[in-house]
Amino acid sequence: MADIPITTHVIEFPYTRTLGPVIGPFLTGLRDGQILGIRSVDGRVLVPPTEWDPETGMPLDPAGLVPVGPGGVVETWAWVTRPTAKHPLAHPFAFALVRLDGADTALMHAVDAGSIESMATGMRVTAKFRDERHGHITDVVFVPEERA
Amino acid sequence: MSEQPVVAASDSEQPVVMMDYFMHLEYREVVCPIVRRYADALMDGKILGQISPTSGLVYVPPRSYCPVSCEWLGEDHLVELEDHGVVTNFTIVTPVQYYGQEETEPFAKASVLLDGPGGMLGLQDILDLPVDELRVGMRVEAVWLPPEERTKDEIGNRSWGSVDGAIRGWRPTGEPDVPAEQFLDKVY
Amino acid sequence: MPIDIAIVGYAQSPSWERSELTEVQFLFPVIAEAIAMAGIDRRDIDFTCAGSCDYLSGQTFAFVSNLEAVGAWPPISESHVEMDGAWAMYEAWVALQHGDIDLALAFGSGKSSPGDPMQIYPLQMDPYTLTPLGADPTSLAALQARALLDSGRITEREMAEVAARNRRDAVANPYAQISGEEDVDALLASPYVTAPMRDHDLPPFSDGACAVILATADRARALSDNPVWIRGIDHRIEIHQPGMRDLRESPSTAAAGKGAGVADGPVDLAELSVAYTHQERILTDALGLGAGVKVNLSGGPLTANPMMATGLSRVAEAARAIQRGDGRRAVAHATSGQPLQQNLVCVLEGER
């Protein structure tokens, strides 16, 4: 295949999205160093918060946004040996489902654990906020609690 | 490398109501065999097409099939096309300065129906002519790049109609216009 | 009650790591072969539905170009889903239910080799909380696999055994991309790609296509003495956020299986969209398939994974297995979204 010509091209879209009454406060919270969940119809706390109840489809009241975390428990995890250009960290890290304290569902996010040996199901992690934050999901990353 | 939002640091007093996400994807594609033949011919100053024996339609660049008669086209169906023809349609684009737009002045893109066996090249540049003088029926000829300046780099599977890298564009020949009635079935 | 619909023709391309042909070029002979198998003229087709994803090849309106392989002149009645071709077949099945048409073509195709699916697929995730993390299919499958491993319902050895069995079965499959005899201990000795997933736990991302021809009952009997009947078909979807689901279960597969009537009779074989080794356990449990059911005799998606055609290929492989005499009643399964978020189940039966 070495002699066969290959064409390259790039697609780029600069998306700008409106955030609405629930995701807006959630990302505002991240910018301000706080993680918010929302109360579902049956009283559970959902993280990330959703505009609609996942069980019933009913709209959820933004007044039901409540702080959760910053600590939580790893429910399951995956060790990313070779991060892609789209991943939030350029070095090996874990993706994890983190059930934050006060939440009834788990948030998928990155755990900057250093090595796979530092990861375990059931371990405690805590949110570490970046110094410069923009109201973006990558304003935060999780780290093992004993290292925080 | 993570993709950070392109937005500047927000005013911390204001709620976050918008989110930017910069989507960037890169693609690398092998040029398909029939387009490789086409690209090689362009380097030799020849425009190759494929003619369908059933529909009589001519495809340039060749694509290995005729979508109208639904038959596979092979090497036997290759045909050398003329490098002159007639403008059958055009559009004048007034560039809006959206992300990625590099043009600043109005420009024309024309459909050129080649003489002889035929073949339609879309979205061609017409050279040496103010855009408001471009008209349907105008006769044009290819302006080839010198052989040493030609390159196949721009020719890929997705550039149906592309002569980029070999032909700079098309210039009016000054011959009398062709009456539009002669190509009303080929105005795309 | 739905009216009876049968599969009277099907065809697949090989699964390639990187095809030199364009998507239309490799789709062209697949559609021609399916039409030839059905013994019809392409102009007899009343409705066409395609499944594909323009982001894979990065070509805008690639799905329109794909119609060039169908023969869309004079104009035809057609539709497109940005999903696996199995959902295109579902739409064609629904169209046939109206009773005013009797022949439909459904196909799925994808050319994933020009791009990087690991960077493209995060774009199908929640744009606020998951796309910006680059939440990729391998990582999401790995989260699911770990949850299943932690529950004790599967072991890494059992996952490797699925891979080894699939690759061994794929030796006889001319469309497979990966095949061969594997030693399970050797597989387990290989390093993790994204722990707990090793290379053999992950599918190839293939280029390829699949097409099927559906016919109403009278037309099917006129065309074929051995049609494969669609006895039931259903699809269901779950919550998108992976942390709001129990990833160890697939209630959407279970619901679709119930809707399609999987349990209404004995199942001889199943073609399941097991793109990740651990998912075989989740899917067979959700569908209630016992140890006697032959799963993925073709080798399955772990050996041939033409994006956007993998699910429809399960239908084609199951139909082929029935006509070959491997069984009389089969389950075909397709999935969409990560990991196993949306699932389609189809029950197929042979004439005899």
What kind of oligomer do you see?
Answer: heterotrimer
Shape of chain B: globular
Strand content of chain A: 35-45%
Give the tally of structural domains of chain A: 1
Structural class by helix and strand composition of chain A: mainly beta
Sheet with the most strands, sense and barrel status of chain B: 5 strands, antiparallel
Short description:
The complex is a heterotrimer of chains A (148), B (188) and C (352). Chain B is mainly beta and 188 residues long. Chain B contains 1 helix and 11 strands.
Explained architecture:
The complex is a heterotrimer of chains A (148), B (188) and C (352). Helix content of chain A is 8%, strand content 39%. In chain A, strand 2 (35-39) and strand 3 (45-46) form a beta hairpin. Chain A is mainly beta. Chain A has one helix at residues 20-31, and strands spanning 6-18, 35-39, 45-46, 65-68, 71-80, 93-100, 107-111, 124-129, 140-144. Chain A starts with 5 loop residues before the first strand and ends with a strand. Chain A has one domain (20-147). Chain B is mainly beta and 188 residues long. Chain B has one domain (33-186). Chain B has one helix and eleven strands. The N and C termini of chain B lie far apart (44 Å). In chain B, 31% of the residues are buried. The model of chain B is unreliable at 1-10 (pLDDT under 50). Chain C has 352 residues and is an alpha/beta fold. Chain C has a domain at 5-116 and 205-223: 3-Layer(aba) Sandwich (Peroxisomal Thiolase, Chain A, domain 1). Chain C is built from twelve helices and twelve strands. Chain C has helices at residues 23-38, 54-57, 62-65, 85-97, 117-120, 137-151, 156-169, 184-189, 217-223, 251-260, 279-287, 310-324, and strands spanning 5-12, 47-51, 78-81, 103-111, 192-195, 197-198, 207-216, 228-237, 269-271, 294-295, 329-336, 342-350. Chain C has a ten-stranded mixed beta sheet with strand order 3-2-4-7-1-8-12-11-9-10. In chain C, strand 5 and strand 6 (197-198) form a beta hairpin. In chain C, helix 4 crosses helix 12 (310-324) and helix 10 (251-260) crosses helix 11 (279-287). Chain C is globular. Chains in contact: A-B, A-C, B-C. Chain A binds chain C through residues 1, 4, 9, 11, 15, 17, 19, 23, 26-27, 46-48, 50, 54, 75-88, 95-99, 105-110, 116, 121, 136-138, and chain C through 18, 20, 58, 116, 118-119, 122, 126-130, 132-136, 138-140, 142-147, 150, 191-197, 239, 241-244, 247. Strand 1 (6-18) of chain A pairs antiparallel with strand 1 (18-30) of chain B.
